[in-house]
Design brief:
Layout: H1 2-14, H2 18-25, H3 41-45, H4 50-75, H5 77-92, H6 105-115, H7 117-134, H8 137-154, H9 158-174, H10 176-184
Helix pairs in contact: 1-4, 1-5, 2-4, 4-5, 4-6, 5-6, 5-9, 6-7, 6-9, 7-8, 8-9
Protein name: Glycerol-3-phosphate acyltransferase
Pfam family, one: G3P_acyltransf
Transmembrane segments: 6-26, 79-99, 105-129, 136-154, 160-177
């Protein structure tokens, strides 16, 4: 029963649409009608408000990390894995928004940092390095989604590798339109509205 409760708690925490809340609170508009229509930090950045984008990034990653850390503290590693994956699912499919949420990248990174900081660090570094070179957020996310489970497996963390692979597959699915634009050479670069 405890695992079910921690999974539900992780989902509900993950389902808080921080980007949407921040954008509305600052009078930036409804993110679902701006740029890509996504509720995450990259789309908040398209509003031109860098502090709001940073706050969204930190809160979206934080909800994954907090779900993992609380579950681990009170119920152990299995609960932490489930709560983190559930927070990711909550971000992607929030009940409050008719199950139409973000792409989950920040929550993925926060979850990984809390599950295994070396894996999370590699995923963040992969995202940052790819973004610095390509200036394409979606490509950065896809690279991190591929490398994180491989690195977790190499470290002997099969449990984290499985969670990272599950989230990584969903990141690819959530980025299907981005992948099409990447193949066509029309994917927007970071900082472009």
């Amino acid at each position: 029963m405890s695992l079910i409760l921690w999974t539900l708690a992780g989902y509900l925490l993950g389902a808080v649409p921080f980007g949407l809340v921040i954008a509305r609170a600052l009078g930036l508009g409804d993110l679902r009608k701006i740029g890509s229509g996504n509720i995450g930090a990259t789309n908040v950045l398209r509003t031109g408000n860098k502090p709001a984008a940073l706050a969204t990034l930190l809160l979206d990653s934080g909800k994954g990390a907090i779900a993992v850390l609380l579950a681990r503290h009170f119920a152990g590693e299995e609960a932490a894995l489930l709560a983190g994956a559930a927070a990711f699912l909550g971000h992607c499919f929030p009940i409050w928004l008719g199950f139409k949420g973000g792409k989950g990248v920040a929550t993925f990174l926060g979850t990984l940092i809390a599950l295994s900081w070396p894996v999370g660090l590699v995923a963040c570094a992969t995202w940052a390095l790819t973004a610095a070179i390509s200036r394409i957020s979606s490509l950065s996310a896809l690279m991190a989604a591929v490398l994180a489970p491989l690195f977790a497996f190499a470290l002997g963390r099969g449990d984290v590798a499985l969670a990272a692979a599950f989230m990584g597959v969903l990141i690819f699915i959530r980025h299907h339109a981005n992948i099409t634009r990447l193949m066509q050479g029309t994917e927007p670069r970071i900082g472009r509205k």
